[in-house]
Amino acid sequence: MIERVYFHNVAEREKRDGLPGVRLHRFPASVRHALSENGRTRAVLSNGCEIRFTTDAKHVRVTLSALETNGKVMVLRGDFVHSVHTLQAGTMQTLHLETPERFAEVGREALCNRAFSPDVWRIYMDRFCAVFHDIDAFGHEVRPPEKREMPEITLLAYGSSITQGAGAQSHYNGYVQQAARRLQIDALNLGLSGSCLCEKEVADFIAERNDWDVAFFELGVNMRSLFTAEEFRQRAEYLLDTVIDRHREKPVFVTTIYPNRATYFRNPNDVLSERERQYNDVLRRYVANKNHPHLHLIEGSEIMTDFTSLTSDLIHPSDYGHILMGEHLARHLRPVVDKLRGSAGDR
Q1: Is the pLDDT of residue 119 over 70?
Q2: How much is the CA Rg of the chain, to the nearest whole Å?
Q3: Which of 79, 198, 267, 290 has its CB surrounded by the most CB atoms within 10 Å?
Q4: Across the chain, what does the average pLDDT equal?
Q5: How far is CA 83 from the centre of its chain?
Q6: Mean pLDDT, rounded, for 279-304
């Protein structure tokens, strides 16, 4: 059954001896095991992973499980939210899905845009370790969606827990997903909570991929307490150089650190405040010196424009904050995305 579905944002499907199902990973083991101790535990989270398929069956059953914590799953049919489910940790659970009967009552053109076909089932994983077991369509054919049934443009995003979607009630509402929804494009979310450290292995992994059209990097906030400005420069430059050199014609966006508590500390000489300013200058100088036609700098303050849109931890956006940030990010990306969409239409 695995070959009959498409696993989006899944770099590795891991089968463990003696355990049922396959674990869905955004990063392969070679990358996960090269990260920091915190990074290794964050990299196994399946948030942003999707199981996608189409079938003529009116009823379909998808069996999943969550490992160590309960997991929220959002089911969509095309771009329409169908249902939300909570998986109990350590228990196989079967979701019984039924084709929305009201779809047949309206013209098909009302159900379609440039993103997903309304025929595509999408099982979206929130922030937990997801395990896929089975799909049962009661004898009907199940197949992966065709390219024309999914967005033609894909955004890859790498960053901190903010990019991962922390602060939102559902990671589906994180600002990267919000921007992608507004632009009617796909998203590969590689956010790592507290662990975005620009490791060489991550840089090489992203550079070696060919499944994205636009890259977006939110760098620095997790590194302020660990690395000097010079160490940050070396890591950030390796990441950006490696990706750009491998994909010289693809647009790459990088943002300075989003405003947070350290931006407004009463003590401006605090190490976090100082390094935040230094890191931001590193990114500005890199983009200016690189002078690459497809490299774009975004000031974090142009994305996160309202400090009160953060949660009370003063770093992670609330749902309102993610919505606002998604709108601003989409505005910055739109000219490039529209150009790419026009080029794709010419091919």
Answers
A1: yes
A2: 20
A3: 198
A4: 96
A5: 21
A6: 98
| Whole-prediction pTM | 0.95
Measured distance CA(239)–CA(161) in Å, rounded: 18
Tokens 């490992």: give the residue: 67
- Beta-carbon contacts of residue 183 (< 8 Å; ≥ 6 apart): 153, 155, 330, 333, 334, 337
Distances (CA, A) of 197 to 145, 192, 222, 236: 34, 9, 7, 9
* Pairing, β 142-143 against β 130-136: unpaired
End-to-end CA distance of the chain: 33
Please give the pLDDT value at position 344: 64
Q: 46 near 116, Cβ under 8 Å?
A: no
Q: Tokens 């049962």 map to which residue?
A: 136
Tell me, what's the pLDDT at 347? 45
pLDDT band at 1, cuts 50/70/90? Answer: low
Single-letter amino acid, residue 168: A
pLDDT of residue 55: 97
User: SS3 sequence, the chain?
Assistant: CHHHCEEECCCEEECCCCCCCEEEECCCHHHHCCCCHHHHHHCCCCCCCEEEEEECCCEEEEEEEECCCCEEEEEEECCEEEEEEEECECCCEEEEEECCHHHHHCCHHHHCCCCCCCCCEEEEECCCCEEEEEEECCCCCEECCCHHHCCCCEEEEECCHHHHCCCCCCHHHCHHHHHHHHHCCEEEECCCCCCCCCCHHHHHHHHHCCCCCEEEEECCCCCCCCCCHHHHHHHHHHHHHHHHHHCCCCCEEEECCCCCHHHHCCCCCCHHHHHHHHHHHHHHHHHHHHCCCCEEEECHHHHCCCHHHECCCCCCECHHHHHHHHHHHHHHHHHHHHHHHHHHHHC
